[in-house]
Amino acid sequence: MKILITGSSGFVGSHLVNKLSKKHTVIGYDLVNKEDILDEKLLSKKLRGVDMVIHLAAFISATESWEKPLDYMRNNTLGTLSVVDCAIKVGVKKMIFFSSAAVKAKPLTPYAISKINAENILSLYKNRMNIVIVRPENIYGPGQKANYGYVIHNFIKAVRSGDKINIYGNGKQTRDFVYVDDVVESIDSIIEKKIKNETLNIGTGNAVSIKYLAFLVCKILKRKTPIQFKPARNEPRNSFADVRTLSRVGIDYKKFKDVEEGIKDLLLRSHS
Question: What's the average model confidence in pLDDT over 109-114?
């Protein structure tokens, strides 16, 4: 199978390329190569002869999206329209779209709205193309950059450097942390099982408080680090995956790493 991955040099994209290229012919499409998702001429050229497109390219910071809402709508919403429209015109039969768990959280952010808009656009095309939408929870793992303030990496960095751990709010807010390997395996399963026209929540189904996460990082690294509580941000209070969607299509979320196991593996692979 020939697969084009947008956002191929990003955190999840690079892991997907490594995994899928062992079985398939994988083509990357990425802004680092000056490949704009809205360049329909170039996009159409690269999509020709492709069997499937996995659309990952996106701006992903909920906090930053309040500062740059137009950029988020352009890239995440119009970019998705560009991909699906070009793909259908050149005869691509299947698309896997990386949406976000943020679409079901409260309060909504411009980032979440950009993904909701993208999902709504794709719903218009499901009679013309097999489209699978995935909504990952908080993905973490080796190779992740700190540009967008990933909490696990920030906590590890703070503990190792002897700085205080910064928590925004009271720390009782919860997230579902899903390891990048489990996300990639899920995408591989979607391809292998030939799943059609589904919306799937990818996560462990476990809600982990940010305060407990800080305790866990300190425990794993065997260091005591003070916590500094800062004013809460305008972000969702709680989020975890409804994993029944995975069970429905035969993906075993029970095999996913829990957050303690995942952090240990992350630290091990970061030093290898």
Answer: 96
Q: CA–CA separation, 213 vs 216, rounded Å?
A: 5
Residues serving a catalytic function are: 111
pTM for this predicted structure: 0.96
> What is the secondary structure of 155-189 as a DSSP string?
HHHHHHHTPPEEEESSS--EE-EEEHHHHHHHHHH
> CA dist 129 to 88, 90, 234, Å?
7, 12, 36
The reported pLDDT for the residue numbered 234 is 84
Strands 138-140 and 177-179: parallel
Q: What is the CATH number for 90? A: 3.40.50.720
Q: Is the pLDDT of residue 272 over 70?
A: no
**Nearest to 257, CA basis, from 153, 179, 186:** 179
3-state secondary structure of 134: strand
Q: How many domains does the chain have?
A: 1
What domain range is 32 assigned to?
Answer: 1-136
Pick the closest to residue 39 from 6, 2, 73, 8 (CA basis). 6
Is the pLDDT reported for residue 146 higher than 90? no
User: Does residue 256 fall inside a structural domain?
Assistant: no
